Amino acid sequence: MVAKEEVTISEAEAALYDRQIRLWGLEAQKRLRAARVLLIGLGGLGAEIAKNLTLSGIKSLTLLDHSIAVANSANFLIPLENVGKNVVEASLERVQRLNPMVDILTDTENVTAKNEDFFSGFDVVCATRLPVEESIRINAICRKHSIPFYSGDVFGFGGFFFVDLLEHEYSEEVNVPAATLKDGCTAKKNDPSETKTVKHTLNYIPLQAAFEADPSSQLNKRSWQRIKSHFITMKSLLMFRSQMKRDPEAANRQSDIAKLCEIRDHILHEMKLDNQMVDSGIFETVFGELSPAAAVVGGVLAQEIIKAVSHKDAPIRNHFFFNGATDFSGVVEAIGF
Description:
Shape: globular
Order of helices and strands: HHHEHEHEHEHEEEHEHHHHHEE
Radius of gyration: 21 Å
Largest sheet: 8 strands, mixed
Helix content: 40-55%
Number of strands: 10
């Protein structure tokens, strides 16, 4: 990780970030102001993450993607006249306009060509739209350099992300009965309370360990029932991307659903579970990258990065799932521990 420099907040920055400073404090904003973030992949999810991180007031955001901007993309940062250009270059102007105080940098090289030294220059790495093998490679490099790592995707109405913060310390404000703070006596029902800052530490595992985990045996029955369809769907989609070198396409709907079901059955067989545990109908809504799902997943993911950088409040440990076609709510679960 890059060496930290002393950060000061200018009057202009204090005015711009006034609400945030009042919300989580000056020291947390200073940490944000020093953060150099690498964002890989600028589809609809990447655009939402870029928007939220830029507005938060980090030091710099590097956008890395070698793909070409296409029409009807979920990336709302691309003007129509920029279709056909590299996607990060096509999005640069609108990202920068969100917050001129943040350095927005672009890189049009394929991430697979990036070596270890490249990643070591960042404080946070967030990867989207990558084969799981490449995400695992980058995560291993990040762990070597003590860099927090995130990876996420949106498929149709749903999406998910993974978090690896290595060993992470954070603080949160809790209300403690005033009597307990002063003399250790048991507080009465109507006693006033005082706010106290409590520090905690969480340990994380790498993506490879989480991806290869068997949560059906690790989690209690209730937790497994809650996330089983999310987990199997996520793993099926990522394995489809690795095997087919692309994401599911509406033009190949029936054959792609059949392939996803084949992958699902293989996963369930490896886990010694019933093949009917996850209905094939769940794959009917995984085509494309829909903006509403990207907005939800991208908003939560960006907020998690802000929490981790500022060391304020408890972060997710270590998966977040969202399915806008069914329950319209997010699910958090610690998988692989």
